Amino acid sequence: MAPHITTLLFDCDNTLVLSEELAFEACAELANEILKSRNIPDRYTGPDLLHEFVGQNFRGMMVSLKAKYKYEMDEDELTTYVLKEEDQVIAKLKAELRPCEGVDRELEKLEAHGKYHLAVVSSSALRRVQASVQKVGQDKYFGEHVFSAATSLPKPTSKPDPAIYLHAMKVLGKTAEECVAVEDSKSGATAAFRANIKTIGYTGAYEANEEARMRKVLTDAGCCVVMNDWSEFEGCLDKIEAGEV
After folding, report:
1. Cβ neighbours of 213 (radius 10 Å)
2. What is the pTM (predicted TM-score) of this model?
């Protein structure tokens, strides 16, 4: 039996907006500050962090770095860096952020049809997600339905933990069978899959030479269909609603 889809759940970073490269520049600056303070000689560039930690929020990245380099960082220090990262990333986003190519046209069509509830489900801090969708004028499509794994949950987490998807569905009063997610990263796709949500993978924000690899990564992570351009979105959604994937 084909599912009855009522709700579309969009990742934000590099799905709705081209934010990851800008954000990881700021993250790298802070990561290097932390490593220097621990007398660890390694240093990261934005692309280094993006390659290693794409789809994770800054808190998740810092926990991963702490495990990798085996240094101590208490919760107060971590929270200080998390807030500093939010401020620096938001400043960059407000100055330079652009929407992913073609997404605004699809959001306009979805709003005109009025068939689906639309929400954002992100790992990033709520202030950052709100600043992102406001900067590019997408906030009008989502209203208050913006959910952050870093901020909206009693205990902050990050995708691939499915907690933020489960929380969003609970708040919205929806079941997994009613939802379709759109994700661009392995961690995001894994989170949606673990929440039992049918997921459309999106590779359009990656460089052309990365597209084939990411298509496989997203498929292996649980995406039932993958698009490279937002013009393919309607066809992908039709396949899910028809029960073909």
Report:
1. 11
2. 0.87
User: At 201, which helix (H) or strand (E)?
Assistant: strand 198-202
Q: Is residue 83 over pLDDT 70?
A: yes
Tell me the average pLDDT across 132-160.
96
Can you give the pLDDT at residue 55?
76
CB half-sphere exposure, 169, CA atoms < 13 A: 18
* Distance (Å, whole) CA 76 – CA 88: 19
Q: Across-strand partners of 179?
A: 7
- Can you tell me the distance from the alpha carbon of 56 to that of 190, in angstroms, rounded to the nearest whole number? 12
Residue 45 pLDDT more than 90?
yes
Report the pLDDT value the prediction gives residue 1, as an integer from 0 to 100: 66
Whole-angstrom Cα distance, residue 245 to residue 243?
Answer: 6
Is residue 160 reached through a cis peptide bond, with omega within 30 degrees of 0 on the bond before it? Answer: yes
Instruction: In whole angstroms, give the CA distance from residue 84 to residue 104.
Output: 30
Tell me what the mean pLDDT of segment 134-158 comes to: 96
Q: Which residues contact 156 (CB under 8 A, 6 or more apart)?
A: 59, 149, 150
Cβ contact 133:93 at 8 Å: no
Place of tokens 């599912």: 3
Distance CA(7)–CA(116), nearest Å, equals: 5
